[in-house]
Amino acid sequence: MCDGGPVTTRRTQAERRAATTEALLEATGQLLCESGYAGTTTTRVAERAGVSRGALLHHYPTRTSLLLAAGEWLFEERVERFRKAMVDGGEGVDRLHRAIDVLWELLSSDSTAAWFELTNGARHDDDLREPVAELARRMTDRVSDTWADTFPEQQRHDFAGAVPALAVLTLEGLATRVRNFGDPAPSSVEEVIDLLKLLSHFLETPGEES
């Protein structure tokens, strides 16, 4: 019999688990950004996620397992954002400029701030140090691979592999400086980004083939 009332659909166990996991990882990322590595405790994460500490421990039995899962989640989120932005990029020099803008948006974001806090904490944690270092290496490789796919014309240069590294390391250092101490000068951020874009003009002329 149809009474015209609302139809409710109960979530499956897998859906409930996925929702809880996402809430916990988001909460961990937020707390890493706001309170740093030391301030990201399982108790605070559970409170932020709106779940019991028992539920958290069911999914992540230790703080280390939670932080590693959050690191993987932050890694995938940042890589996917960069990949999608590159797929939607423009052409020629505009495309290179867009890549630099996207990298700056990514490296100055809260998710990257959370990542930095995790990597800093992992330096003094024997259980986290190597797994987090491996995530950092994978991040570098994925950005380089995406850059190579987006700018195949650059791959004829001998220094092609150094191009994304230059952009990432420059903008990463600038983002850290700004976040920790504020903009060092009113226009310095824009000037550094504009300089990277200016340098990108030289990359639009492929080197001679040997």
Which helices and strands occur, and which strands form pairs?
Layout: H1 13-35, H2 42-49, H3 53-59, H4 63-87, H5 92-107, H6 110-122, H7 129-150, H8 162-181, H9 188-200
Helix pairs in contact: 1-2, 1-4, 1-6, 2-3, 4-5, 4-6, 4-7, 5-8, 5-9, 6-7, 8-9
Compact description:
The protein is 70% helix and 0% strand.
What can you tell me about this protein's structure?
It is built from nine helices and no strands. With 210 residues, the chain is an all-alpha fold. The protein has a domain of 135 residues: Tetracycline Repressor, domain 2 (Orthogonal Bundle), CATH 1.10.357. Helix 4 runs antiparallel to helix 5. The protein is elongated. The relative contact order is 0.10. The C terminus is likely disordered.
For the record, give the distance between the C-alpha atoms at the N and C termini, rounded to a whole number: 78 Å
Contiguous runs where pLDDT drops below 50 for at least 5 residues: 206-210
Largest sheet: none
Mean pLDDT: 84
User: What is the alpha-carbon Rg in Å?
Assistant: 21 Å
- The proportion of residues forming helix, as a percent range, comes to over 70%
Count every beta strand, where a strand is a DSSP E run of 2 or more residues. 0
Order of helices and strands: HHHHHHHHH
CATH architecture of the domain at 70-204: Orthogonal Bundle
State the CATH class of the domain at 70-204.
Mainly Alpha
Shape: elongated
